[in-house]
Amino acid sequence: MQVLQRSLPSTRAGARPVRPARKMVTCLAASRPIPRATNEQKIDLLKKVECFIFDCDGVIWLGDKVIEGVPETLDMLRAMGKKVFFVTNNSTKSRAGYMSKFQSLGLDVKAEEIYSSSYAAAAYLESINFQKKVYVIGETGILEELDLKGIRHLGGPSDADKRVTLKSGEFMEHDHGVGAVVVGFDRYINYYKIQYATLCIRENPGCLFIATNRDAVTHLTDAQEWAGNGSMVGAIVGSTKREPTVVGKPSDFMLKNISATLGLRPDQICMVGDRLDTDIMFGKNGGLTTSLVLSGVTTEEVLNSPDNKVIPDYVLSKLPDLLTVKESAMVAA
User: Is 222 tagged catalytic?
Assistant: First the structure.
């Protein structure tokens, strides 16, 4: 039973309306602000879900700081026999790189529980039996995952310092053996990379255009939001007039892989995230239960905006809210 639908929110006893930080905003899908999950609803969530898929930035950590209570929450879920996966659109690290980050934050996570968009890009190319070279706009995470799949590549960090002078008669050569351009978050993107990717896509017959994600903003630090990969992808869309194949959230490529691996139905899986347009949409598109946490990008004002049409099944202030029903949930399990 889903406690929040696209029509009216639950009005059962004990459901409390959300208190927006500034003013009450009426949501298009509800006659009043969407309530946070009650203890009864949290227990219902824990009882019916067999696998939790977590976004990382804004859910597990903010920048380089783990959100207080997250380690205990993960321990509780595992003690209840729940499967957990960590799905992130951040492509700057490979799964091995994310393993190091989890460990540095004191989180016990296995490599096979991590699905990054860098891994998704490599896995997608493997799934179509890709045999050519890849030009990469992105950082080491993508390169490391391509190496693990035996896929040849060029670009990435090695092109960080290359410059275009645009002197009279200047002509840029490019590798005609490139059969795909992968665009991931790149702190060192420059005009050389944009032009090289543009030439490959426009002039190499059949060249694929793959985006790890199109997130507008990202949490690179815990101090503020930073421009996301959508800005990098947008530059290539603008110069090529081509739309990319997106392999990260909210596309369903990673979800199908997880579901197939575990043999679970979509309704047995819950997507937990802090973004409506990627995390929650990702879950909705795949038929999953969805839970929005308000510890990251999405605020109560955005959630309850008349313009928002993406309604999560559950709303938590932060993931460790589930600890408030630990004793009751463990008994029920």
Answer: no
pTM strictly above 0.85: no
Residue labelled with tokens 């029509």: 7
User: Residues annotated as binding site for Mg(2+)?
Assistant: 55, 57, 274
Q: Which is the catalytic residue, given 44, 55, 186, 279? A: 55
**Would you call 55 a catalytic residue per the annotation?**
yes
Bind-site residues for substrate: 249
Task: Tell me which long-range contacts 121-125 makes (C-beta under 8 A, separation of at least 24).
Answer: 121/91, 121/145, 121/146, 121/182, 121/184, 121/210, 121/212, 121/247, 122/146, 122/148, 122/149, 122/151, 123/149, 123/247, 123/253, 123/257, 124/210, 124/245, 124/247, 124/253, 125/149, 125/151, 125/180, 125/210
Mean pLDDT by 10 residues, the chain (333 residues): 38 40 39 84 95 95 92 96 93 93 92 92 96 98 97 98 94 98 97 98 98 89 87 98 95 83 89 94 94 95 93 97 87 59
Three-point CA angle 302, 69, 269, nearest 5°: 65
What confidence score (pLDDT) does residue 15 get?
41
Predicted local confidence at residue 257, as pLDDT: 78
Among candidate residues 57, 215, 279, 313, the one labeled active-site is: 57
Which is it for strands 65-66 and 61-62: parallel, antiparallel or unpaired? antiparallel
Q: What is the number of other CB atoms lying within 10 angstroms of the CB of residue 58?
A: 25
Which residues, in sequence order, are CB contacts of 4 under 8 Å at separation 6+?
10, 34, 35, 311, 312, 313, 314, 315
Three-state DSSP class for residue 262: helix
Q: pLDDT at position 218, please? A: 83
CA 315 to CA 303: how far, in whole Å?
Answer: 10
| Helix ranges, the chain (H) | 39-48, 70-79, 95-104, 117-127, 140-148, 191-203, 229-240, 253-262, 281-285, 300-303, 326-332
Rounded distance between C-alpha atoms, residue 3 and residue 10, angstroms: 6
Buried b (16+ CB within 10 A) or exposed e, 258-284: bbeeeebeeebbbbbbbbbbbbbbbbb
